[in-house]
Structures
1.
Amino acid sequence: MCLYIFSLFLYIINYSTSITMLLTTTPNIEGKTIMTYIGVVTGETIIGANFFKDFKASLTDVFGGRSGTYERTLREAKDTAMKEMEDRAARMGANAVIGIDLDYETLGNGGSMMMVSCSGTAVVVAP
């Protein structure tokens, strides 16, 4: 019995490190069978606004249009939080994260910082 559990453990470790992590906001993955629910996994990042970004964004507010600077910064923060969650899931032995939820919050005086957090359920799906 112990040998079987150890073999399964090695299979999961080798399998999870040899493929790309599947990430989805849905509670399941079409065409895949979830073998094991491992647990909740999270990723967070906090970014601070700086004077130059604020100045450029204020010009956008006055003249209209989208703030490409802030959009890039938010996208970078989201990618960082998602990568952190993915890495944690891999260390837990998962090869997928399902039910991902992304949250954006402002922090600090006058909303000078932005926190991006994500959470999901780390799982092992059959190949």
Note: The two ends are 23 Å apart (CA to CA).
2.
Amino acid sequence: MKNIQFEQVLALKKAVQDAFSVNVHFHDMCSYSAFSLDEPNEKIRAFIEDYFKKQNSRAVFNDSGTDFVIE
């Protein structure tokens, strides 16, 4: 798990908002960045996974599909 720059957080939130009209919640956990969605959505999950893959990172979701961290 890793921290990402706040500008990257804002860019992710905007990209998801623009594409899906959904808010991504950001949780600063001191040593890493965590995110959550209000409800699971496979299309949004795929979008986020692809978004971070393009940045040579990886979004790792929990079993419920609502919470994720970046590796």
Note: The first helix runs from residue 6 to 20.
3.
Amino acid sequence: MNIQIKPELEEIIPAQIATGRYTNPEDVISKALKLLLESNMGRSYENIRVDLRGIPLDGYVILDRVINGGIEIVRVVSGYRNLESLFTESIDD
């Protein structure tokens, strides 16, 4: 399976590998997906968008939404960012 990742998301992968917690890109993606699937939790960010959820991971927030029985990762951002200011534009960009 080949997956295309937006450049801003792709930049996070080598940064996570550099921490020493992960050895390759597959480890980083696998960890993120396991967190999303195991929990179906995610904090609700309905104040930003009704279907938006987020899960903290190693200083980042993985923002996702449920679509067609699956999960779409919308953005991965630093946990220190003001999330509301990021979504003044459409998240479908």
Note: The longest helix spans residues 25-39.
4.
Amino acid sequence: MRKYVASALFMALWVTMLIGCVDSLKNQVEIINKQCPIDLGILGEVTHVDLDDRTIVYHVSTNPSVLNISRLKDHQKDVKQGILLNFSNDRATLANFIAAKCNLRYEYTDSQSDERLIIDISAEDLKNVNALVANPQELARKRVENFVTTGRLQLPLHVDEVTTLDDIIIEGDNVGYVYTLDETAISPDTIRERLGVLRENIERSLRGEDLSMIMLVDALTNDHKGLIYRYFLNKSKERFDITFTPEEIEKIMLGIPSNLELNEHMN
């Protein structure tokens, strides 16, 4: 009943981190290509990496059900800003690329239509990253805001025959995913009965190894944000919320077992 919208910037950060500590540009490309294709979970995969003079080019095949390249094309500035904001959160990798005086290019290709989105990051852009934010708190806030902004570009997203993701919001100390449920396919009583199971399934996903989940939890933890899954019935407009507090999100980030995991281990 749920599907996450992952912003292209998170994919870009993770791909870059894979090679951040290697000595030369040529060696970086050789090492990453030996690992390709690299599975990015629901986002897609890194197919290969090229070196074009002083530019490292990442070729990423994307899942069109998660990333709509056509919509992102009109908002390339937001995608680029997100990539640079994530570099601010990973100073070691940033320092390596500044020292190498290289440029970066991300070529995202829709795995079905072959439509492409190209984001260029110049050596000068990398040098100016530190000017984007004044302090770690501002960085954390801007990362979450950019995550929501780029995620909204994919909406509405039809998750399945019952569920549509309509909006991603910031509400107080929470990021919220707002869904509509088709009331002709599922009754309010059924939803009430399944809320506990649904929450358990969401928590398992948040604790999983999918890239989008890892980066989402990381961004929320750094900004001390909680997470809300909000479901509206399309006819009665009745609302159901499943909430994870900032403290619960931080425990997930730190790998601290929950009551759910403890019960599973006991059974």
Note: DSSP finds eleven helices and ten strands in the chain.
